[in-house]
From TrEMBL:
GO terms for biological process: dendrite extension. Residues 1-15 have a biased composition (Basic residues). This is Protein LLP homolog. One of its GO terms (cellular component) is nucleolus. InterPro entries: LLPH-like. One of its GO terms (molecular function) is RNA binding. Residues 1-20, 34-55, 100-119 are annotated as: Disordered. Belongs to the learning-associated protein family.
Length: 119
Protein backbone atom coordinates (compact mmCIF):
# COMPACT_ATOMS: atom_id res chain seq x y z
CA UNK A 1 0.00 0.00 0.00
CA UNK A 2 1.09 3.53 -0.65
CA UNK A 3 1.98 5.81 2.24
CA UNK A 4 -0.59 8.52 2.61
CA UNK A 5 0.20 12.16 3.29
CA UNK A 6 -2.04 12.03 6.36
CA UNK A 7 -0.07 9.13 7.88
CA UNK A 8 3.24 10.86 7.17
CA UNK A 9 2.10 14.07 8.81
CA UNK A 10 0.84 12.20 11.87
CA UNK A 11 4.15 10.35 12.14
CA UNK A 12 6.02 13.69 12.00
CA UNK A 13 3.73 15.14 14.68
CA UNK A 14 4.34 12.15 16.96
CA UNK A 15 8.11 12.52 16.49
CA UNK A 16 7.93 16.21 17.49
CA UNK A 17 5.79 15.36 20.52
CA UNK A 18 8.27 12.61 21.51
CA UNK A 19 11.16 15.11 21.42
CA UNK A 20 9.19 17.57 23.57
CA UNK A 21 8.30 14.94 26.17
CA UNK A 22 11.73 13.28 26.32
CA UNK A 23 13.20 15.46 29.14
CA UNK A 24 10.09 14.94 31.28
CA UNK A 25 10.15 11.17 30.75
CA UNK A 26 13.86 10.96 31.58
CA UNK A 27 13.29 12.98 34.77
CA UNK A 28 10.44 10.68 35.84
CA UNK A 29 12.58 7.62 35.13
CA UNK A 30 15.46 8.98 37.22
CA UNK A 31 13.09 9.73 40.13
CA UNK A 32 11.56 6.27 39.94
CA UNK A 33 14.95 4.58 39.95
CA UNK A 34 16.12 6.65 42.92
CA UNK A 35 12.93 5.81 44.87
CA UNK A 36 13.23 2.06 44.25
CA UNK A 37 16.81 1.65 45.46
CA UNK A 38 15.68 0.29 48.84
CA UNK A 39 12.75 -1.73 47.47
CA UNK A 40 14.35 -3.68 44.64
CA UNK A 41 16.48 -6.59 45.91
CA UNK A 42 20.13 -6.33 45.08
CA UNK A 43 21.67 -8.95 42.80
CA UNK A 44 23.04 -12.00 44.56
CA UNK A 45 26.66 -11.81 45.60
CA UNK A 46 29.19 -14.38 44.49
CA UNK A 47 31.23 -15.90 47.31
CA UNK A 48 34.39 -17.95 46.95
CA UNK A 49 34.93 -21.26 48.66
CA UNK A 50 38.23 -22.10 50.32
CA UNK A 51 39.28 -24.25 47.38
CA UNK A 52 38.73 -21.35 44.94
CA UNK A 53 35.45 -22.35 43.26
CA UNK A 54 32.82 -19.65 42.75
CA UNK A 55 29.39 -20.36 44.18
CA UNK A 56 26.23 -18.27 44.32
CA UNK A 57 24.32 -17.63 47.50
CA UNK A 58 20.84 -19.13 47.45
CA UNK A 59 17.87 -17.42 49.03
CA UNK A 60 15.80 -19.43 51.47
CA UNK A 61 12.62 -18.53 49.55
CA UNK A 62 13.92 -20.05 46.32
CA UNK A 63 14.99 -23.28 47.99
CA UNK A 64 11.63 -24.08 49.60
CA UNK A 65 9.16 -25.82 47.27
CA UNK A 66 5.71 -24.38 46.72
CA UNK A 67 2.83 -26.14 48.40
CA UNK A 68 -0.30 -27.02 46.49
CA UNK A 69 -3.36 -25.29 47.93
CA UNK A 70 -5.98 -27.67 46.58
CA UNK A 71 -5.94 -31.42 47.01
CA UNK A 72 -8.56 -32.06 44.33
CA UNK A 73 -7.48 -33.90 41.21
CA UNK A 74 -8.83 -33.35 37.74
CA UNK A 75 -9.45 -36.11 35.23
CA UNK A 76 -7.76 -34.72 32.12
CA UNK A 77 -10.00 -36.66 29.74
CA UNK A 78 -13.33 -35.48 31.17
CA UNK A 79 -11.95 -32.36 32.94
CA UNK A 80 -14.09 -33.21 35.97
CA UNK A 81 -13.08 -32.97 39.61
CA UNK A 82 -13.20 -36.00 41.89
CA UNK A 83 -16.75 -35.12 43.03
CA UNK A 84 -18.04 -35.00 39.43
CA UNK A 85 -18.26 -31.22 39.08
CA UNK A 86 -16.23 -29.03 36.76
CA UNK A 87 -13.55 -26.59 37.96
CA UNK A 88 -14.48 -22.90 38.29
CA UNK A 89 -11.97 -21.79 35.69
CA UNK A 90 -13.44 -24.01 32.94
CA UNK A 91 -15.78 -21.99 30.72
CA UNK A 92 -19.29 -23.06 29.77
CA UNK A 93 -18.50 -23.54 26.08
CA UNK A 94 -15.77 -26.05 26.89
CA UNK A 95 -18.07 -27.86 29.37
CA UNK A 96 -20.75 -28.13 26.67
CA UNK A 97 -18.25 -29.60 24.19
CA UNK A 98 -16.95 -32.09 26.76
CA UNK A 99 -20.47 -33.25 27.65
CA UNK A 100 -21.34 -33.61 23.96
CA UNK A 101 -18.18 -35.62 23.30
CA UNK A 102 -18.83 -37.89 26.29
CA UNK A 103 -22.40 -38.50 25.17
CA UNK A 104 -21.30 -39.28 21.61
CA UNK A 105 -18.99 -42.14 22.61
CA UNK A 106 -19.94 -45.45 24.11
CA UNK A 107 -17.77 -48.36 25.17
CA UNK A 108 -18.23 -51.43 23.03
CA UNK A 109 -19.03 -54.64 24.90
CA UNK A 110 -16.24 -57.19 25.06
CA UNK A 111 -13.44 -54.91 23.91
CA UNK A 112 -12.04 -53.09 26.88
CA UNK A 113 -10.79 -49.56 26.25
CA UNK A 114 -12.23 -49.30 22.76
CA UNK A 115 -14.76 -46.59 21.95
CA UNK A 116 -16.74 -45.83 18.86
CA UNK A 117 -18.88 -42.92 17.73
CA UNK A 118 -22.63 -43.16 17.97
CA UNK A 119 -24.59 -42.85 14.80
Amino acid sequence: MAKSIRAKSRRRARAVKREQLQPKVLKQLAETLSNTQGIVPLPRKVHKKENGEDIKMEDVDDATPMEATSNSTINLKTMKLADGSYPKWLNQKKIYKLKKAAKGQKVTAGRKGRTRKRR
